[in-house]
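Appendix B, record 7
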Amino acid sequence: MFITTLIAFAALAAPGEDVKCAVMHSPTNEKSKAVEFSGARFPMCCGGCPEAFSKDPGKFIKDAAKSNETIGVFLFCPVSGERIDMDKVKETSNYKGIKYGFCCADCKGAFEKDPAKFAKSPEKESLTCAVSGEKIASYSEAAGFVDYNGARYYICCANCGPALKKDPAGVIAKSKIKAVAPSAVPSPTKKVDVNAVKTCTDC
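Structure tokens (predicted):
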């Protein structure tokens, strides 16, 4: 069973909309404080909003899905699971309150054929890399994710992706990590270098 807050059965919104604060519906910018939840980054308009959002992210995401107001930016290509730099991607779509970027045009095409399939967010996840055992402090600092058996497993670097994709059952069982319900985490105050995250050579 998947969280339905990112799932809806309506038309895609036009890309390029300004991302609004989920709490106050006010404009935000690249310097705004932000909260991350379930793979997406939610910028806030003021210092008091992160706490309010973090108490019940699902409520604000549901409200945005109904109003189609864009409040968050997904940090990964929803089709490939690859971490992307939203400042550089050329292909984007806004869907039910979340702006999605894609690693390639093919992924955008697949998404727009069935956005509900790719916009769904599992009820459980792990921010501990099943391959390396490294704890990942925020979604921004993950290199990607792999979905398996109804849960989402984030990886610490691109080197860990192939092993997890090849044998998710074996890798997850060996790691002994447990997927849990997602919770809001503070977004790093400094922008994460996506290329550095993806090209880690320690694993």
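Remarks on this record: The chain is about 25% helix and 20% strand. The first strand starts at residue 2 and ends at 3.
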